[in-house]
From TrEMBL:
<dbReference type="InterPro" id="IPR006016">
    <property type="entry name" value="UspA"/>
</dbReference>
<protein>
    <submittedName>
        <fullName>Nucleotide-binding universal stress protein, UspA family</fullName>
    </submittedName>
</protein>
<feature type="domain" description="UspA">
    <location>
        <begin position="2"/>
        <end position="127"/>
    </location>
</feature>
<dbReference type="Pfam" id="PF00582">
    <property type="entry name" value="Usp"/>
</dbReference>
<dbReference type="InterPro" id="IPR014729">
    <property type="entry name" value="Rossmann-like_a/b/a_fold"/>
</dbReference>
Amino acid sequence: MTLVVPYDNSELSKTALIRAAQFSTVFDQRVVAVSVVPRNNTTYARERDWIGSNERFDTEAVVTTLRESVAKIAPEATFDHISVGRDAPSGTIANKIRRFARQNDASIVFVGSENAGRIVGTLTVGSSVTTDRSYETMIIPHAKPVKIKELETALPTPPEIQ
């Protein structure tokens, strides 16, 4: 079984990754962070601070940035990325994440991305990624994680996230 984290380098996705890493120490399951990267979408990449304001889009550089960010937060986690078309609709991104979660035998998907509104839906938590019944979903609604004693004991939250 696997703990999957859709990861876009936002504060919420970082918190979701921390929470998944904490759960992995308790449940003894591996953590996999996955980023969906629209090809050649400079605006999308700049909005997420994947590239600087004067940088050209470079998929390899974006993936490296995301991979390094994941490794800094959760060194034991593995990282994967999925490329989609430049103007992929939100449904495509959510479908890719759901498929990835199923293919990686996810027990829990930790959703804390800035795209949570596109993935989860703004009115309910029950749409898109969360509708798949092959795994549980944990929504991370706050960039600063709520302290849970048992999880903090297993793996303390890094000071830069607290």
